[in-house]
C-alpha cells in the first residue's frame, strides 16, 4: 500500500521543485503581444471572423492536411493554459497517419481575440467552434479536448452529437464539481489580481509537478515561454482579464452532472499522476488532498459515460501527449483504428 504524503512534504514540494531547476530556467520569458504576436506556431495560422455578442471577433486556427488522407478529421481543443500550438506533436502524429487536423484557439485565448466584455460559456465557445468548422466545410469529425478543452469538448458533444464520430478526452478537468466539494468561490476581480502576478517561474514550477510528474525536459520551456509571454507583454491586462473571465466560466459551469447524457463513443486518455483542480490553492487544507484524484475520477467518469473506453498512463501527468508523445500517440492511434462502438 503506497505511503501517504505527509503534510510537511506537501508544504516543501513547491520549494524543492524550484531548487531542482537550473538557474537558467528561472529567467523570465520574452513578452508577446495580446494575441501572441511574436510567437510562431508550427503551421500557418488562419483566421475566422465571426459576429458574437455584438462584436466582430477573430478566431485563429490551424488546418493541416495529411499527405495521404484517410478520410477522417480530428478537431483538437486546447486547455486553459495551453494553445493550439501545444498540439504540435499530436498534429504531426495524426497527419502522418492520414488525418486532417484542425486546431483552433478559442476566443479569449492565445492568437484569438480577447474582448473587454464577453459572457463566456462553454455553450458559446462550442457554438463559435461549430461555426468555424462549418465555414471550412466540415460536417463530421472526431473531437479531442485536453484539460479545459475536455470540458468544452464534452459540452460540444452534448450540444451537437450528430457532428461527432468520436469524443476523446485527454486529462479533462471538470471530472468533479469543485464548488459543490467546498472550494471557495473567487470573484472575477480576485482571479484578475491573481493572473496579473503570473510569471514564468511560477508556471514552470506548477507544470513540473502537475503536467509532467516531476520530469522536466528542455523542450517544455517553449510552452512556459508561450504562456508567460502573454502575461508579460503588451496588452497583458487584457490577457489577464480574459483569463479571469474564463476561470469563472470553468468554476461555475460544470459538465460533471451530464456525463450520462453523452451519446457518442468516448475515449478517455488519462495520465494518473495528474492532480489538477481549479482553486485547489484556496481550498481548506483538509480538502486539498482529495481534489484532482485522477485515478479515481477517471474511473468514475468512465463508469458513467455510456460508451466509454478508459486508457491510463500510470506514470504520466496532466499533459501525457507532451510528456510522452510516442507512447501517447501510439495508444491514441490504436484506439482510433478500432471501430467506434
From TrEMBL:
Residues 73-277 form the AB hydrolase-1 domain. It comes from the Bacteria. One of its GO terms (molecular function) is monoacylglycerol lipase activity. One of its GO terms (biological process) is acylglycerol catabolic process. Residues 1-26 form the signal peptide. SUPFAM superfamilies: alpha/beta-Hydrolases. Pfam families: Abhydrolase_1. Keywords: Hydrolase, Signal. One of its GO terms (cellular component) is membrane. This is Hydrolase, alpha/beta fold family.
Amino acid at each position: 500500500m503506497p505511503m501517504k504524503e505527509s503534510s510537511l512534504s506537501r508544504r516543501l514540494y513547491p520549494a524543492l521543485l524550484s531548487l531542482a531547476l537550473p538557474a537558467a530556467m528561472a529567467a523570465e520569458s520574452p513578452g508577446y503581444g495580446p494575441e501572441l504576436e511574436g510567437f510562431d506556431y508550427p503551421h500557418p495560422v488562419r483566421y475566422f471572423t465571426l459576429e458574437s455578442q455584438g462584436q466582430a471577433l477573430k478566431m485563429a486556427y490551424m488546418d493541416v492536411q495529411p499527405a495521404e488522407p484517410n478520410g477522417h478529421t480530428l478537431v483538437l481543443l486546447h486547455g486553459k493554459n495551453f494553445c493550439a500550438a501545444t498540439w504540435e506533436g499530436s498534429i504531426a502524429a495524426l497527419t502522418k497517419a492520414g488525418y486532417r487536423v484542425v486546431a483552433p484557439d478559442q476566443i479569449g485565448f492565445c492568437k484569438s481575440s480577447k474582448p473587454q466584455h464577453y459572457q463566456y460559456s462553454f455553450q458559446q465557445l462550442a457554438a463559435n467552434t461549430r461555426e468555424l468548422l462549418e465555414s471550412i466545410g466540415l460536417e463530421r469529425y472526431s473531437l479531442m479536448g485536453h484539460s479545459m478543452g475536455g470540458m468544452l469538448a464534452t459540452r460540444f458533444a452534448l450540444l451537437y452529437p450528430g457532428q461527432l464520430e468520436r469524443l476523446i478526452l485527454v486529462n479533462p478537468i471538470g471530472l468533479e464539481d469543485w464548488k459543490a466539494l467546498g472550494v471557495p468561490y473567487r470573484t472575477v476581480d480576485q482571479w484578475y489580481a491573481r493572473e496579473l502576478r503570473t510569471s514564468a517561474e511560477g508556471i514552470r514550477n506548477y507544470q513540473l509537478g502537475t503536467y509532467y510528474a516531476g520530469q522536466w525536459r528542455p523542450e517544455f520551456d517553449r510552452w512556459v515561454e508561450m504562456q508567460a509571454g502573454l502575461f508579460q507583454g503588451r496588452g497583458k491586462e487584457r490577457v489577464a482579464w480574459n483569463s479571469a473571465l474564463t476561470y469563472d466560466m470553468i468554476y461555475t459551469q460544470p459538465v460533471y452532472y451530464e456525463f450520462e447524457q453523452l451519446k457518442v463513443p468516448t475515449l478517455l486518455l488519462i495520465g494518473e499522476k495528474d492532480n489538477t483542480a481549479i482553486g485547489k490553492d484556496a481550498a481548506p487544507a483538509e480538502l486539498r488532498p482529495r481534489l484532482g484524484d485522477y485515478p479515481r475520477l477517471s474511473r468514475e467518469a468512465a463508469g458513467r459515460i455510456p460508451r466509454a473506453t478508459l486508457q491510463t498512463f500510470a506514470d504520466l501527468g496532466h499533459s501525457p501527449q507532451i510528456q510522452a508523445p510516442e507512447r501517447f500517440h501510439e495508444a491514441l492511434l490504436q484506439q482510433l483504428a478500432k471501430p467506434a462502438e
